[in-house]
Design goal:
The complex is a heterodimer of chains A (about 110) and B (about 110).
Chain A lengths: L4 E3 L2 E5 L4 E6 L6 E7 L5 E8 L4 E4 L2 E6 L4 E6 L8 E8 L7 E2 L3 E6 L1
Parallel strand pairs in A: 2-11
Antiparallel strand pairs in A: 1-3, 3-8, 4-5, 4-9, 6-7, 7-8, 9-10, 9-11
Chain B lengths: L3 E4 L2 E4 L5 E7 L5 E7 L5 E9 L2 E4 L6 E3 L9 E3 L8 E8 L7 E2 L3 E5 L1
Parallel strand pairs in B: 2-11
Antiparallel strand pairs in B: 1-3, 3-8, 4-5, 4-9, 5-6, 7-8, 9-10, 9-11
Classes of the chains: A mainly beta (about 110), B mainly beta (about 110).
């Protein structure tokens, strides 16, 4: 069963704008991660946030986690055409369980 | 260079034939995973293995089989029992207990 659900399913913005994607999940988690996938390629890990963390930054990426609402958001600032990709959230629960992925958000950044 | 190799990148098979997808890693990772991705969808777990000679079913194991005879290899066989095998297959590996798996480039399987 898929744990995370990303919102929106697709997002189109102009270069230089910020992009925000949201992820909701159903059960308690240990970690939440965000991945990027370029068309037809493998997944690239972007950032991991632990259940006891509320916010994390990495370069132009900002991730927040609200465990009370079972939701997370990924903000990409000053977007570039090269950010065009699908973005997935993935969660794992306690006990060394495999990652469970959402269906992703397709981001298009128009130059 | 350390990484995960999946071969081939594209695979075509006739309906009713079994086919084996290769996944090899030289990262010395203990755990390995197989995911399936359909167009516009997220990844669904097929099988995973946390140690050699042991593996567990994921959410969609029916019609698939795996083996884990060596730490670095985790081949996936798509059998004729899999009703709709055309998909993109991703292999991943991670350290034991490590939360961040490293993904291979994927194999796109098309059944004609």
């Amino acid at each position: 069963s898929q744990q995370g659900e990303e919102d929106p399913q697709a997002l189109s913005i102009q270069e230089g704008e910020n992009a925000t994607m949201n992820c909701s999940y159903k059960t308690s988690i240990n970690n939440l991660q965000w991945y990027r996938q370029n068309s037809g390629r493998g997944l690239v890990h972007l950032i991991l946030i632990r259940s006891n963390e509320r916010e994390k930054h990495s370069g132009r990426l900002r991730v927040t986690l609200d465990t009370s609402k079972k939701s997370s958001s990924l903000l990409i600032t000053a977007s570039r055409a090269a950010d065009t990709a699908s973005y997935f959230c993935a969660t794992d629960a306690q006990g060394n369980t495999p990652l469970v992925f959402g269906k992703g958000t397709r981001l298009s950044v128009i130059a | 260079d350390g990484g995960i190799t999946q071969s081939p990148k594209y695979l075509f098979r006739k309906e009713g034939q079994n086919v084996t997808l290769s996944c090899e890693q030289n990262l010395n990772h203990d755990a390995m995973y197989w995911y399936r991705q359909d167009p516009g969808q997220g990844l669904r777990l097929i099988y995973y293995s946390q140690i050699v000679n042991d593996f567990q079913k994921g959410d969609i194991a029916e019609g698939y089989s795996v083996s884990r005879e060596k730490k670095e290899s985790f081949p996936l066989t798509v059998t004729s029992a899999q009703k709709n095998p055309t998909a993109f297959y991703l292999c991943a590996s991670s350290l034991a207990g490590g939360p961040v798996p490293f993904f291979g480039p994927g194999t796109r399987l098309t059944v004609l």
